[in-house]
Amino acid sequence: MLINTILNRFGSFKRSSDVFRAVGDSVQLEMQNPRAETRDLSWIFNGSKNVLDYIKKNNDIDLSPNYRDRVEFNNETYSLTLKNLQKNDSGLYEVIIFLRFSRYIKRFTLSVFDPVKSPLLTFQQNPDSCNVTLTCRGHDLSISSSCYNTTCEEKEVTSPGGVALSLSVLDSSIVCNHSNPISWKKTTVELEIFRYLCPSEVVIDRYCFFLIDD
User: Fold this and answer.
1) In this protein, which residues make up the domain named Immunoglobulin V-set (predicted)?
2) Could you say which of 95, 113, 131 is where a domain stops?
């Protein structure tokens, strides 16, 4: 393939961008300022898998069979459009443009996510005090926080894949927020309920679920 024979023969200029999309969406990876002096170019996935090669002189496009019916290439802007994205499309995409005496490389790190679901927010009272333990769960993440009366710890955790879970106080509510770069959902419980959890107040069940989805 074109890229394997001449990749290391020229100097290069590099740019990079992060791109986030949902499963089933499309994405256009594009050059902001296409270069008129472009001779040839290659789109590559994860450093070694060619998506396509383009020879400008002959207007010849060599598209990998793995991407047929899923890819559109614009030979004026050199943009690449990927359709019906799946999570295994996540990775590094590079367009390597060969100029007369140099090459220009633009990199896109694409991350494809499923939309998040509403988190589960539960709380459990300590029978001997006004302390309450809140637990928020979403996807493979879980965080716990302690509350006394209407004062609660705020916490947050983020996975290496960009999924985040947080417990925070907003106005008169505890909010459990579950998010990733393309979506978010929340579940809330009113702080007022904790005023009635002390032993001297009205007794209610020690283990409760309150789901008020957005």
Assistant:
1) 19-97
2) 113
Expressed as residue numbers, the domain containing 23 is 2-113
175's enclosing H/E stretch is strand 173-180
Q: Are residues 24 and 85 in the same domain?
A: yes
| The two three-digit tokens of residue 27, written as one number | 């994405």
Q: What is the pLDDT of residues 107-133, one digit of tens each?
A: 999 999 999 999 999 888 776 677 888
- Name the pTM for this structure: 0.73
In single-letter form, the type of residue at position 169 comes to V
CA dist 89 and 161 (Å) reads 14
Query: Which 8-state DSSP code applies to residue 91?
Result: E
> What order do you get walking across the sheet with 71-73 strand by strand?
27-29, 80-82, 71-73
Tens of pLDDT, residue by residue over 124-166, are 877 667 788 889 999 889 999 888 766 788 999 999 888 999 9
